[in-house]
Amino acid sequence: MKGIRDRVAIVTGGASGIGAGLVRAFVAAGAKVALADIQDDAGTMLAEELGPQCVFVHVDLRRDADIDRLATFTAERFGGIDFLLNAAATYADQGVDSDRAAWQNGFDTNLFGHVMLVRRALEHLRRSSWPSVVYFSSESAHVGLTGRWIYPATKAAIEQAVRSQALDLAPDQIRVNAVMPGWTEKPWLKTAPQEVRDRYAALSDRLHMIGRQGTLDEVSDAVLFLCSEHAGFITGSCLRVDGGHSALGPQGKDKHLPTAARAAAGVAFQAGVT
User: Fold this and answer.
1) Between β-strands 8-12 and 83-86, what pairing exists: parallel, antiparallel or unpaired?
2) Catalytic site residues?
């Protein structure tokens, strides 16, 4: 896409899952990528596989010193920072049994660390000719989830942070958006037991209008678009890349025809009468 080649991206959580998909996609598009993660082995292996356009940096988003080091290293290594792709997340969540430390850990990783990264990288983003920040939301930001209190709350907070940051950073031409993926196929699923794969396939068919999970490439393409010069008038938005998941109502894909149900029950139907 136009505007990606030779620009510099930081990808948090880039050692696995969606983050790793982003790293691969941006390197393939010609960007230089700093892969930030706490998974040293996986991060190092991916960076070595992708070559000199990608470097691994050990970063714990709960530590300001790590965030400072990431921004400084990236700018010195590649000459600046153009894109922040805030993909790192913890799913640790025990609902009602989560103590204060668990809540702090969730927000520190999913939101606070990324906000601190934006603040720390701001001087570099302001010098960029095409700066962009992309966060990751979730449908859980808009619904209740049984047994999960922390993760949904962090995602709801992310969407609000996106709106506020987009407004305040617009004078610097820094665009801030979010992506909301649906269920996305991860590499581990390919080697999971058949019964696990069958369960995920059935759930994906029921939960997505398109009838399947999304792919890492489909999520990465959306993020590439938001960072590209094709999306210059898009900021403060949340792009849903979820196969229609969030648009489904409580009936899901099941058909329910009230008139047919009434007829089957022997109830006469009159137009305009309920």
Assistant:
1) parallel
2) 151
